[in-house]
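SAMPLE LOG
Freezer: B-3
Tube label: C17
Construct: single chain, 238 aa
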Amino acid sequence: HANINAIREQMPLKSDIDFEGCDDEMLLRYLRARGHNVVAAFALLCSHIEFHKNNPELLKGLNAFELRYILEDGFPCVLPYMDPVGSTIMVLFPGMWDTDTFSPDTLLQALMLTLMHLSESLTVQSRGVVLLVDFSEWTSTQAAYLNIKYIKKIVTIFENCYPVVFKSVHLINQPWYISALISFLRPFLTGKVKDRVFLHGNNLTTLHDHIPPESLPSQFGGDRCEVDQSYWAKVLLE
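STRUCTURE (predicted):
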């Protein structure tokens, strides 16, 4: 518990942040996510609290019942099996986003709820998450929502908010401007994260170099059945 106490000793130095509700179990999750580095874990915790404080609109209705329709649409999907090293596999199909039904903020809320839930799993804390993003059927209508402010929120949610470590991020069938955007963002990502983002285009062979077909659904040239888009919604609604 020395590291937990070390984090608590840092809290008075951040008088502008409200640490109410930060119990030992929560602090331990942040420590695990940063390899028990007290400084890094405390920075992640502060970033988490500040993000919630600065985006109160994202906290309204942040529960599985309120978000059940977007979760049932597969935003996001978490697969019921792991990769060979035991990492949890999360899948996003941005091209299936119905912009008439779900606001951009609703997408962020579904991601936040998913990461909050995953961060409570000891398996996720020790083995991390692999993220697959398939841009099939992505349109200019959806792309129009990708302004700098929104992109910054997405990056913060994935990288600097929740005690979940992304072991790798794989983009498939991405359009040229998404590739350009990633190239632009790389310098702003932390050292480990920037080396964990892989752009595959329509080349599934390079994806299989990282994750073998026996651990992938058929949409990704894998041996498993198609992604059950409602599976994760059922887990969260239980």
